[in-house]
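It is worth pausing here to work through a concrete case rather than discussing structure prediction in the abstract. The textbook approach is simple: state the sequence, then state the predicted structure, then interpret. We follow exactly that order.
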Amino acid sequence: MPDKVDQSFSFHPVIARWFRQKFEEPSPPQVQGWPAIAAGKHTLILAPTGSGKTLAAFLWCIDELFRLSLKTGMEAFVQNTAGVHTLYISPLKALNNDIHRNLQEPLKGIRQTALQLNLPVPEIRVMVRTGDTPSHVRQSMLRRPPHILITTPESLFLLLTSERGRQLFQGLRYLIVDEIHALCNNKRGVHLSLSLERLMHLCQKEPVRIGLSATQRPLDRIASFLGGQIYQARTDSFEPRPVTIVDCGQRKELDLKVESPVETFSELPDASVWPAVIQKLYQLIRAHRTTLIFVNMRAQTERIARRLNELHRSITGDEKAEIALAHHGSLSRETRYDIEARLKNGEIPAVVATASLELGIDIGSIDLVVQLESPRSITSALQ
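Step two, the predicted structure:
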């Protein structure tokens, strides 16, 4: 790994070797974030989507787990009686599933690198716990805790309501809150803050808090939310936890167009603008590789996807052809997983979604994003 990130700390040689083989150099959020996290400081990272901020949060946690596996031995590490080492929280199930998939590559690569160096190491287990998780999987993680647990604020709250669930977090070392801007200014964020403070009383040692987002402002307010407050007996008062801010925000050039499907709204066929909207969407989809269409209501996703498919079938003559699929929170877990996987692989020309696909999802094949009607907020539009 480049010297510029090894001056104040160092990764294990296996981790460093894997990183050098995989990347030319660390990104700015990694260069600035790793030293703070390694020093045990609560850290807030602002960086654009695709800049490596997720690896900035996770790699030092993985490094510590790797060293622990060598120190404790394979059998003890597999049993993992200490419980969850790293807890990742995000507001979206789809983002949790995406993070789970994205972690497999570095974990597999690091393990292969270790084996090349004749270091047999056990697998670092990563599990997702959300409302979609089957009951038998939930029970298995209580019996055999994962090293990294990926969850939502609501699922964390439910874990804290049971004695066995609370026991999972006694040895917690790192706490990552992703897309923190989507939580800090609403009731979900207040609820999460209470859960985090409850969590602190269960841990043998307070974990390092790491916050991530691409669109968080103002940073000092977000940092205050991430750090929370801690009681100081000497002054009989609560004081904010200090948080190191890593600001790698960039002003991106936006290729932005505001388009109307009709020239005038005074004379609409059938007194509706939607036929023209569907025609315009169809033209845009056919002109691009992969299109992601955002709408504000779940019912709209189904309706627009259906009408796009009807138009596509009438044009192609193929009664089974599909050009668009709907994605929202009311779909079954299996259906959402399948759509997300096919979208990432570039197998679907278009997906019509609500905010269920809004936050931080890494989908490299998309070359067009359409927002139908006004977004609910400026932050949502930027995201």
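Step three, interpretation. The mean pLDDT is 87. Residues 242 and 369 are 38 Å apart (CA to CA).
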